[in-house]
């Protein structure tokens, strides 16, 4: 079925979509090539908006018109991930479960490297490791460092070191 141009008194084929209303992208009209060019030439999305409304729209456009969240907000993905990373639902790291301390264990080079990357002493306990990890994540997180690749790489190393330490803390 062929659409007819919806421009006043035009009988040409309407092949091009044009928004019928500024704020409703689902509502459109069909126009022929000549009239779509006229429409586009005269289209002003900001027509009827105040300077403040335009500035607010452009500011909101930076985040795709979605609200931003602070790192610490309760529904922030990273906050949820962070809280889950530190939760110990099964009490793996409680003092009763850690029978052998790291002092009694022989540390491999990989174990030592993990402690060094996080700036920890080799005899650090689990709660100290968690606290240091939390501090380092906040310090090196890309959102806090304008997406700097060096900080992102450093955070990856820290996260891998933390994961490694988490594993060796539960070994018996």
Helix and strand arrangement:
Layout: E1 16-21, E2 24-31, H1 33-42, H2 51-61, H3 77-86, H4 109-117, H5 126-140, H6 149-170
Antiparallel strand pairs: 1-2
Helix pairs in contact: 4-6, 5-6
3D structure, described in words:
The chain is mostly helical and 172 residues long. It has helices at residues 33-42, 51-61, 77-86, 109-117, 126-140, 149-170; strands at residues 16-21, 24-31. It has two domains: 1-68, no CATH class; 77-170, DnaJ domain (Helix Hairpins). The protein starts with 15 loop residues before the first strand and ends with a helix. Mean pLDDT is 79; it is low at 95-100.
Which features does this protein show?
mainly alpha; 2 strands; 2 domains; Helix Hairpins; two-stranded antiparallel sheet; 172 residues
Give the neighbour order of strands across the main sheet.
1-2
Shape: rod-shaped
Which ranges are low-confidence, i.e. pLDDT below 50, for 5 or more consecutive residues? 95-100
Biggest sheet architecture:
2 strands, antiparallel
C-alpha Rg, in Å? 29 Å
Helix content: 40-55%
> What is the N-to-C order of secondary-structure elements (H for helix, E for strand)?
EEHHHHHH
Coarse structural class: mainly alpha
Strand content: 5-15%
- Overall mean confidence score, pLDDT: 79
DSSP summary, beta strand count: 2
Count the helices. How many? 6
CATH fold field value of the largest domain: Helix Hairpins
The end-to-end distance, rounded to whole angstroms, is 74 Å
Level-1 CATH class name of the largest domain: Mainly Alpha
Q: What's the architecture of the largest domain in CATH terms?
A: Orthogonal Bundle
The CATH homologous superfamily name of the largest domain equals DnaJ domain
What is the domain tally?
2
């Amino acid at each position: 079925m062929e659409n007819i141009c919806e421009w006043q008194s035009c009988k040409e084929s309407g092949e091009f979509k044009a928004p019928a209303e500024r704020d409703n992208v689902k509502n459109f009209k069909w126009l022929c090539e000549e009239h779509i060019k006229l429409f586009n030439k005269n289209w002003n999305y900001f027509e009827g908006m105040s300077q403040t409304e335009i500035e607010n729209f452009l500011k909101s456009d930076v985040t795709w018109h979605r609200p931003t969240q602070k790192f610490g907000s309760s529904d922030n993905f990273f906050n949820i991930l962070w809280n889950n990373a530190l939760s110990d639902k099964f009490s793996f790291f409680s003092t009763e479960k850690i029978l052998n301390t790291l002092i009694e264990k022989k540390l491999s080079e990989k174990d030592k490297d993990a402690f060094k990357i996080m700036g920890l002493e080799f005899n650090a306990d689990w709660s100290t490791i968690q606290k240091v990890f939390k501090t380092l994540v906040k310090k090196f997180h890309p959102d806090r460092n304008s997406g700097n690749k060096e900080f992102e790489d450093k955070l990856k190393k820290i996260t891998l070191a933390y994961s490694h330490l988490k594993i060796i803390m539960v070994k018996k």
